[in-house]
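For the sake of transparency, this paper describes our internal protein records without simplification. The tokens are whole numbers drawn from a learned vocabulary of local backbone shapes. One such record is reproduced below, unchanged from the form in which we store it.

. . .
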Amino acid sequence: MTKPTPKPAARETQAIIGQRMRELRKAKGLTLKQLAASTDLSIGYLSQLERQDADPSIRALNVIGKALGVGINWFFPDPDAAENPETGYVVRADRRRALRFASGLRDELLSPSLAGQLEMVLTTFEPGASSGEELYSHKGEEAGFVVEGQLEITLDDQVFLLGPGDTIQFPSERPHRYRNPGPGPTRLIWAVTPPHY
């Protein structure tokens, strides 16, 4: 008597892909319809990915990552995380998920996920790096602590220059922008609610 052939196991990364995709999409304030429009993928397919009812293609992950501003590696779990009791609670310094922007900013996610109500990010600004020339606003509240260097923050028509050890907190609905006036790099820890990454 032969044993029945076991069904192939589901891909281990699938749950992480859907969860991280949903968290990042919501943190960026995008609907499935908006993400579909920017990726040329159907709303139904994107919804299936988030619900873990479909396996993504590499091409799909690439276009979704590009639309959400992350590399494809954002969606994959750390291979050591599956059996680690720290997962979901602790982010080790050498295991942070990071994004680098053309403007000279680098964001490292200090929170274990974007699923909660709070997000912490370590941002490094190269000299002259900024959030852009235009003021912008979004839902929530944010606070920053300058670890190193200087940070110029504009809130509406007010400009604040912060140095090491200084903090700032403001409602994110206020139009704002920030930049490193130099001469060296600036490192800042942000706390943002709700997650905006």
